[in-house]
Amino acid sequence: MEAPIYICPATAADASIIQRIVERSIRIGCVLDHRNDARLVIPWLAQQACDHIHAWLADPRRYLNIALLHDKPIGAGMAAANGDITFCHVQPEWCRRGAGRALMADLEGWLRIRGTAGVHLNSTRSGAAFYQRLGYRESAQPLTQRGMQTFPMHKPLAASA
Fold first, then answer.
1. Which of 25, 43, 124, 134 has the fewest CB atoms within 10 Å, i.e. is most exposed?
2. Rounded distance, CA 11 to CA 143, Å?
3. pTM of the model
4. Domain boundaries, the chain
């Protein structure tokens, strides 16, 4: 049996780790979306640079978390107080082992504590089935963002969980 995955709030010291997790997840795990086209990958990664992550960590309206297994970072996620989940990325070799589910449960818990009635996100094609398994449903027609198709999704949050 594998060790439990530990989720904790991210700190400024985690910014470069989060950037590496996001980069590997995008480059390897999201090939279906960007098809290894540098014109799509480079701008996507630029939006996840360390300076952006530091700014997000300093913003009290945002919450970043990190997933650890044996003290090794394997995933990261971010939510905004308005109910948006901005990202949930897991190192490709750790996908389908519970890290994404644990990250999302923690992000949803943070939003629930703030009285958020529902969660919104824009999923890539690569992530859509994962979010559907967590109870998210498409809430609008697919969009094109950064040259890639995304799927607006929503999930109501119960008052307590």
1. 43
2. 32
3. 0.86
4. 6-156
